[in-house]
Amino acid sequence: MLKIRKDDVVQVMAGKDRGKRGRVLRVDPAHEKVFVDGLNKVKRHTRPRQVRNASRAEAVGGVIEREGPIHVSNVMLIDPKSDKPTRVGIVRRDGKRIRVAKRSGVTID
Questions:
Q1: Which label site among 41, 47, 78, 95 has the fewest CB atoms less than 10 Å from its CB?
Q2: What is the rounded distance in angstroms from the CA atom of residue 92 to the CA atom of residue 39?
Q3: Is the pTM of this model over 0.85?
């Protein structure tokens, strides 16, 4: 179970985008990867193909730029109180898992 979820604001700690911040678009827990908005851009060269069930014949293709995966160990959650990167702890309250920022002790959820 990953401690970073969709719509969290994270900072990249290693790699070509080190120091940049962004919002998590999606999480891939099976491969321990996150996709961050605007970071780790990769280019895919795609052949123009017709879109099915479209009202008119549209061909989508060319060089498409999108976000690539970043390993979860290379990002840190931003502490809501101090606005700095923090580690995340799990605390059980009333039988529920609650994420807590280690830096300030503030609950994240």
A1: 95
A2: 33
A3: no
